[in-house]
Amino acid sequence: MPRSKSRGKKYSPKPVSANAMEWAMAGSHLLPTVKRDELFEPVAVAFDALRAGTASMEQWYTIDNGLRLSEALIGLNIGNNLAEAVRAGRHALNEVGGRMRASGSSTCRA
């Protein structure tokens, strides 16, 4: 059996960051306020409509998706301190959705 072919390239180790903490901090940042507002605006509008008793099924789904996203972030250990509030919100939203389906109405009322 023939010998395996050699690599043909000289080994050179990859550089190691001397200050890993500085590198990690430089890579992490918050979203700019304008972008954050742009992302959260549909959920805030839907929540205001739900509080006013005029939310549509589409707005119910918008709030539900926002809460599901929050749960996914909690699963990644981001915002763990809000886990109970998110669970309570999902439970309350599911009750609203159940009442809406039972009544056959397309308007959510808290």
Please outline what is shown here.
This protein is mainly alpha-helical.
* Helical residues, percent: 55-70%
Structural class category: mainly alpha
**In what range is the share of β-strand residues?**
under 5%
In terms of per-residue confidence, which ranges show pLDDT below 50 for 5 or more consecutive residues? Answer: none
**Succession of helices and strands:** HHEHHE
DSSP helical segment count: 4
Major sheet description: 2 strands, antiparallel
The neighbouring-strand order within the major sheet is: 1-2
Mean pLDDT: 84
What is the CA-based Rg, rounded? 25 Å
Name the shape in a single word.
elongated
Distance between the termini: 77 Å
The total count of strands amounts to 2
Please characterize this protein's 3D structure.
By secondary structure, the protein is mainly alpha-helical. It has a domain of 71 residues. Helix content is 62%, strand content 4%. The protein contains four helices and two strands, in the order ααβααβ. A two-stranded antiparallel sheet has the order 1-2. Helix 2 crosses helix 3 and helix 3 packs antiparallel against helix 4. It is elongated. 8% of the residues are buried.
